[in-house]
Design a protein that fits this description.
single chain; 420 residues; mainly beta; four-stranded antiparallel beta sheet
């Protein structure tokens, strides 16, 4: 098809046409033709680089052979909206009632609540069950802390200098909240068996440059362990065996502008640690997740940072150290992220909630271990601070749930099957 095109930009209007198959696309400003590409368009009189944001197709004319590239198909469609408590700041996906279907938990800081949203297995959910917790929760982890085969939950409670423990029962129900005292203003909690005794332990980061270890007894109670200096506050962390010695280690995202970094605390196997590595200095990491992104059997680290709208991937060397960062794009203000198979290839991808641009981005990985650009962006309501993923409709494809802190709306996006 042949078109007459108006290009709006740099305060002039011209036509775009293709003279012949052997000639490049050309812009005409009324005096002489100027060659250009879609990524770089030079003004004929200023010789500067401009990006023209609006191209308006008006009417077919003879002499033009111009076609905009087709938009790639959407990977997801929104299937549900669910209203949750005030100030949702964290999402978590798990089968809470042991029915084989994935459920979602929403941690709500402003009304001090936890919503458990049971999945039906077809991409829809039941009405939220709300539990009262101690004040200002912003994070959640899970595990069987009393060895009764039911999943229990532990949340930080910033307003009361404690953790909230909810012991699970049958059918996805939880007992009333119990208090686990901590130091001042707990920010994050990590669940892992740090001393290899078969009981789950806790690592709790505090606002004032500390990390506390609490040793599980196997009965739903905890004993005080050692406290470690972190250099600054840590809003996120993960546990894994990063050096291959069979003992769990801890990686913390330390986010102060003066001492920001990722810090590795190597486990000794008895519930104690030593700091062995500090890297990614100056990136101001806010969120940190672990996944084996290149299928080598080693847990890699991915972080969203406050220093620019980028994400960073660090491939593990398997000895407690990590390779140089790989940088890839996010939206505006990345705050939370997940990894999963978000298209139908075999490579793990990343999805990130962007608080400033009010959307979430899906960043697909290439076969060479790097990431594709541009991202696939999906507009959400309000300010999304949390994201989670899982197969919510039983089609063996990974779906996404994201929640807005301002609107209190949890949005569920189901992945489309594009390959026939």
């Amino acid at each position: 098809m042949k078109y007459l095109c108006y290009i709006v930009g740099d305060f002039y209007i011209g036509c775009v046409f293709k003279q012949a198959k052997s000639h490049p696309l050309t812009a005409c400003n009324g005096t002489r033709p100027v060659k250009f590409s879609f990524s770089e368009i030079a003004s004929p009189w200023q010789h500067s680089l401009y990006v023209f944001s609006i191209i308006i197709l008006l009417t077919p004319v003879w002499g033009c052979d111009f076609k905009l590239p087709e938009r790639p198909p959407d990977l997801f469609y929104k299937s549900n909206e669910i209203r949750v408590g005030l100030g949702p700041e964290f999402l978590f996906s798990q089968d809470f009632n042991n029915d084989g279907e994935l459920d979602i938990a929403s941690v709500n800081s402003k009304d001090h609540s936890l919503d458990i949203i049971l999945g039906k297995g077809d991409g829809t959910f039941r009405f939220p069950q709300t539990y009262r917790v101690f004040s200002e929760p912003t994070a959640l982890s899970s595990g069987d802390f009393n060895n009764d085969s039911y999943q229990d939950l532990v949340l930080n409670s910033r307003g009361e200098n404690c953790l909230t423990l909810l012991l699970g029962t049958a059918n996805g129900k939880f007992l009333p909240a119990q208090r686990i005292p901590t130091g001042k203003v707990p920010l994050w909690v990590i669940v892992q068996d740090f001393d290899s005794d078969g009981n789950l332990d806790l690592a709790v980061t505090l606002t004032f440059d500390k990390m506390e270890i609490k040793m599980g007894t196997g009965s739903g109670t905890f004993k005080k362990g050692d406290t470690y200096y972190t250099g600054s506050r840590s809003l996120s962390g993960v546990a894994s065996d990063f050096n291959g010695d069979g003992v769990s280690d801890i990686a913390l995202a330390v986010s102060s502008a003066n001492s920001s970094s990722i810090r590795i605390y190597t486990g000794n196997g008895d519930g104690t640690f030593q700091q062995t590595l500090r890297f990614a200095r100056g990136l101001v990491p806010l969120a940190l997740i672990k996944r084996d992104m290149n299928d080598d059997g080693l847990e890699d680290l991915i972080t969203a940072t406050g220093g620019g709208d980028n994400l960073f991937l660090f491939y593990s060397n398997g000895d407690g150290t990590f390779k140089e960062k790989i940088t890839f794009a996010a939206g505006g203000g990345p705050t939370a992220l997940v990894a999963g198979h978000f298209n139908e290839d075999r490579f793990l991808d990343v999805a990130v909630a962007n608080s400033r641009s009010s959307n979430f981005s899906v960043v697909m990985r290439r076969p060479d271990g790097r990431f594709k650009f541009p991202t696939r962006d999906y507009v959400t309501g309000g300010t999304p601070l949390a994201i989670t993923s899982g197969d919510y409709n039983g089609d063996k494809m990974t779906d996404i749930a994201v929640v807005s802190n301002a609107t209190r709306i949890l949005e569920v996006y189901l992945q489309k099957r594009l390959l026939k």
